[in-house]
Amino acid sequence: MLRLFGHYVGRPAISLVCLDVFLFVLLIELPALLAATEAPLHAPAWDGGPHLAMAAMAFLALSSVGLYNREVLASAAAAVSRALAGFPLLLAGLAGILLLTTPDSGLLPLAALVAIYLPLALLARAMVAGLSRLEPFRRRVLVLGDGPLAQRAQSLVARSDLVMVPPPAPGDLARLVRERRVDEIVVVDGCDHAVPPWALFEAMMAGARVTNYASFHERETGYLDLDAIDPAWLVFSGFQSGRGRAIAKRAFDVVASLVILLLSLPVTVLTALAIRLDSPGPVFFRQERVGLGGRSFQVLKFRSMRTDAERDGVPRWADADDPRVTKVGGLIRKLRIDEIPQVLNVLKGDMSLIGPRPERPYFVEDLGRRIPFYDHRHHVKPGITGWAQVNYHYGASEEDARRKLAYDLYYLKNGSLFLDMVILVQTVRVVLWSEGAR
User: Fold this and answer.
1) Which residue has the higher pLDDT, 115 or 432?
2) For residue 142, what is the domain's CATH number?
């Protein structure tokens, strides 16, 4: 894993980004190169277009369908299905660039370009996935410690591109690092008292990286292990913060919200009409939620349930195939269209585009008593989408809330405009595959 602007990104994903951009630029330039060698082919009319913008569009299209995700890299069938879904997205994005830059360009060469590019992108993924399983390309990790946390660390090593190294005899740590070519030592809390600091220092001098379990888990999973952290770790683990980031994030929220409102206007009008015709009741739904600093506000959504959904006055999470959801409500919830009116909450300043999902006061009070660090999620503005939303399914239990908090704390710790952009692109994947919708 490499850390880019505070966020951990896997080496296979970085390798694929480089390969995808190279392949795409090569395909764009290939006709011109063949024409320059007097081949019986000629560059299409759009050859002089903004190649960098087109390569960036290719990257965004592949990202939005999840073709850089670790799970997709491990499954050929998943990669093919995602590539097929990415075809119209990439074609539409490239066509938009061409219409703005070279309106007289034909779409047939563009479709041929995309049709050739996507199989090459799949081939690149097969190659990277195969290389990552080879011994020379896998990092060798030694876990020091025992107990549940050590077992979790070992399971993380077993299911990733890492290699487990058996623990050494006392006093042989540095020699083991040299003989077994250990890349990293993961020290589980409690074990650091059993292993002398000088031994860990010697191991570092022998070439190994020394990491505590909580940081290792965060890096490899993208969320925090709530059983392994404490206030001291949160203080000294390097939170990304600052007034500059807050100003930039607010500016991004305002500009992006205005763009979303403009682009979604046709969908908004059609949705409002469908809700009105489908069931009696208002088009919009207001509900009290807890936001920044624990302050309450009224969140605005398209109504997706019957008006008597909670006639007994007891708040409850939505279940799978919830009978309270209307016909139109089921569709707009799967496509996340019911969330569009919350853009007005973003413009007002109660919410951000990216952040932890705001929860109802009843659940906040209950979960705050049961789950450690739960109230920490209110140190940032809640969001329409977030790191937990693109990585975990819909939360409908205390355990779900605990796992989503682990993702939210990762966002609080490593948040940046770069991570915000990653989340926005991944939100497209969540919407396309209706992941976690209820």
Assistant:
1) 115
2) 3.40.50.980
Predicted TM-score (pTM) of the model is 0.87
Please compute the mean of the pLDDT values over residues 31-57 and round it to a whole number: 60
State how far the alpha carbon of 38 is from the alpha carbons of 21, 26, 109, in Å. Answer: 26, 18, 20
pLDDT of residue 106: 67
Residue 295 lies in a domain: yes
Over the stretch 214-246, which tens digit does the pLDDT of each residue have?
A: 999 999 999 999 999 988 888 887 776 667 778
226 found inside a domain = no
Residue 42: what pLDDT? 43
Q: Which helix (H) or strand (E) holds 384?
A: strand 383-385
CA atoms of 216 and 148, how far apart (whole Å)? 15
For residue 261, what is the DSSP state?
A: H
Residue 315 lies in a domain: yes
d(CA 21, CA 117): 10
Query: How far apart are the C-alpha atoms of 69 and 133, rounded to whole Å?
Result: 16
Please check whether residues 186 and 287 belong to one and the same domain: no
Cα separation, 224 vs 150, whole angstroms: 15
For residue 316, the enclosing domain spans 243-432
Q: Are the C-beta atoms of residues 53 and 98 closer than 8 Å to each other?
A: no
Q: CA-to-CA distance for 400 and 403, rounded, in angstroms?
A: 5
Q: Where are the beta strands (DSSP E) in 96-194?
A: 139-144, 162-165, 184-187
Q: What is the mean pLDDT of residues 280-295?
A: 93
- Domain boundary at 80, 99, 132, which? 132
320 vs 406 pLDDT, higher one: 406
| Residue 55: predicted pLDDT | 86
How crowded is the C-beta side of 89, counted as CA atoms within 13 Å?
21
Radius of gyration of the chain (CA): 25
State whether 275 and 416 are in the same domain.
yes
d(CA 62, CA 83): 7
Count CA within 13 A, CB hemisphere, residue 153: 26
The helix, strand and coil proportions of the chain, stated in percent and rounded to the nearest 5, come to 60, 10, 30
The amino acid that residue 222 corresponds to is G
Distance, in Å, from the CA atom of 174 to the CA atom of 181, rounded to the nearest integer, reads 10
**Number of independent structural domains in the chain:** 3
Residue 227 lies in a domain: no
